[in-house]
Automatic annotation (TrEMBL):
Family per similarity comment: Belongs to the cysteine synthase/cystathionine beta-synthase family.
Residues binding pyridoxal 5'-phosphate: N72, G175, T176, T177, G178, T179, S256
Descriptive protein name: Cysteine synthase
Single GO MF annotation: cysteine synthase activity
Biological-process GO terms, alphabetical: cysteine biosynthetic process from serine
Limits of the Tryptophan synthase beta chain-like PALP domain: 6-282
PROSITE patterns linked: CYS_SYNTHASE
Phylogenetic lineage: Bacteria, Pseudomonadati, Bacteroidota, Flavobacteriia, Flavobacteriales
Amino acid sequence: MNRTVLDLIGNTPLVRAQKLVENPAVELYFKLEGQNPGGSVKDRPAYNMIKKALERGNITRETKLIEATSGNTGIALAMVARLLQLNIELVMPENSTAERVQTMRAYGAKVILTSAEGGIEGSRDFAEARMKEGNYFMLNQFGNDDNWQAHYATTGPEIWRDTNNKITHFVSSMGTTGTIMGTSTFLKEQDKNVQIVGVQPGDDARIPGIRKWPKEYLPSIFDESKVDRVMEVNEQEARTMTARLAEEEGIFAGMSSGGAAAAAVKLCSELESGVVVSIVCDRGDRYLSSDLFEKK
């Protein structure tokens, strides 16, 4: 068969919520992206960005890759780069969870930590400066069409297929926005009435994996016309729903998935009927060193 780990990316399960939705006329499904081999939805764009760059000749085995990441993309890139025998340096804020840093290093990547105060924006600035010094190639997940096109080619079609073409609403946290851009593009081509709901943190809320970007850092792949509605969640809502996902649905996920699920559950309470799909973008085990699962 000659299958590799890369062949296992995608075709993740779609499971129906058992307890979170009280409206009997609405079905809520969770797409379990933590089932990807690298543990998150970012396996899809990581593989596509590297594969397309190799096909176009933008990079070779001698190229040194550098990328800023808040975690999941870095883990995915580290995994794919190692399998394809590429060197990669990953830049992330120093307050990232230890599990994320250790996982990247386990795959053989070099990890550079920037100040926590600067956040992911500071990591992006550092990687940009390093690239301009020469000898580096940046995949630039925030401005690379290969990011969202991975979801156009895989995530969207899988959801359409697995809901028997009946999806009415798609809910996704917004970080780099690749997931929501690509999935929206595909679903809207199938049925223009499918509603695309983006989730972002409320003012001052800190939810790893979800961002409300300052204008100068807004991902260039983002097209607001592809999002019908933006719902905001606060940190406590995201934390509470992350715990409920584990305790009530048996879904162990990170806080950004809890944020998306909180918005999806709220949406379900408003609808007269519908089939809602919410992205569960990663697994909870990469947050165990944080206080996310501590009982208050």
